[in-house]
Amino acid sequence: MNEQIQQTMYIESSQHKGHGLKMIAISGTDMQEYDLYAFGKDRLLFGRDASQCDIVIDNDIVSRVHGKIKIVDDQLYLGDLGSTNGMNLYYEDGYIRMQQKCYYAKKSGDMILHIEGPAVSEIENHVVIVLTQSDERSIWKRGNAGFFKRERIC
Asked: What are the two backbone dihedrals, phi and then psi, of residue 112, each rounded to the nearest 5 degrees?
């Protein structure tokens, strides 16, 4: 299994229909949603640099190559690749600082990450990333202090 984590494998998205493994990136007033299986790979890089990353988050607080997502047997792992501003993982009742170059497994529910750094305005210095396997229909609305929040749709 360790060898599987280290090497990129190309996977067919049709194998995973119904799993709905998604990444939602909220940066300032922009929100993007990505089907992680649609990339056809089990390792995805995210960051600011379009020439190096599969998922581009256009915000100066995000490093050129900020983090990596690994998918092994439908289990999702996330790692910080030595970014400048790091990432905070929502765990139980609050955020914990992720150690760089360590991988965190997504357990049940959504995996919520927060990147914070210096910026011109309050809204621009926050990026929220949600990794979810839910096929629930939901919308994201701007809440207090400019943060987005998820509301489920019946």
From this structure: -115, 130
Angle of CA points 36, 41, 45, to nearest 5°: 70
d(Cα 82, Cα 119) in Å, to the nearest integer?
20
Q: Which two tokens stand for residue 14?
A: 């049709």
141-153: pLDDT as tens digits: 555 544 445 555 4
Which one is predicted more confidently, 132 or 32? 32
Quickly list DSSP for the chain. -HHHHHS--B--GGGGTTT--EEEEEETTEEEEEEGGGG-BSEEEEES-TTT-SEE---TTS-TT-EEEEEETTEEEEEE-S-SS--EEEETTEEEEPPBT-EEE--SS-EEEEEE---SSTTTTEEEEEEE-----EEEEE-GGG-EEEEE--
Count Cα neighbours of 62 within 13 Å in the Cβ-side half-sphere.
Answer: 28
- The vertex-85 CA angle with 21 and 150, nearest 5°, equals 40
What is the model's pTM? 0.76
